[in-house]
Amino acid sequence: MHDRAPDGARAAGPCSGVAAAPDTGPEVTGAGTGPADPRRSEPGFAELLDAAWRVGERAGGKARAVLGIAGPPGAGKSTLARALVTGLTGRHGPGRAAYVPLDGFHLSDPQLVRLGLLARKGAPPTFDVHGWAALLARLADERTHPVYVPDYDREIDAPVAARHVVPPEAGLVIAEGNYLACDLPGWREARRHLDAVWYVDVPEEVRVRRLLERHRASGCGEEEAQTRVRTNDLPNGALVRGSRACAELVVAL
Prior knowledge:
Elements (H helix, E strand, L loop, with lengths): L7 E4 L33 H13 L7 E6 L6 H16 L4 E5 L7 H7 L13 H13 L5 E7 L4 E9 L5 E5 L10 H5 L4 E6 L2 H14 L4 H20 L7 E4 L1
Parallel strand pairs: 2-6, 2-7, 3-6, 7-8
Antiparallel strand pairs: 1-8, 4-5
């Protein structure tokens, strides 16, 4: 998604440990990449804003609600999440919704070297998943103080501390990251702190193009960029696609 509203969204089926999606429309056959979806709806961006705000309204006894945006590398998760926060800010006022990226929980290169995982940077074991789960738990339970959140800086290719802040008045956090819907150790526990998870779906060729552009922009030559996509990004994306059915909503960009 490049500065444009999502073209549509499709309701996805239930997954182990995840509540079933509400019935949002007639049965259809899904299109594009991935398996067919049991239900489909076609909201525009305004309807996605409505749906996100409804997640915030069902926080129950928690301090705030957290909506997760999952999807494979290069799908447009951060673009969608930021657009939702911007749109909700316009509707409901500054500070009412906040953005939180998983990428701030990348392990540093020295840690990846120590673990022998530098070549797999971006794979599930290269994140501090327990730190991520602790942050989600804090966001769900506390609205007394600002919560400072790390991010990943692609210019220096490393995580940076406290780039984002979730103010006390924020009743909805929109978190995004590859593995938020994955039914894997650590990620499964983190998922329990999310009130809903949406999955961003784009054609494979679009993702590959974006990923190559990303690696070139970071200074990789053409051969290295192709190798990174083939040996790391695509395997990670295949793993994430397995979590598609764990999302309450699939947003097709």
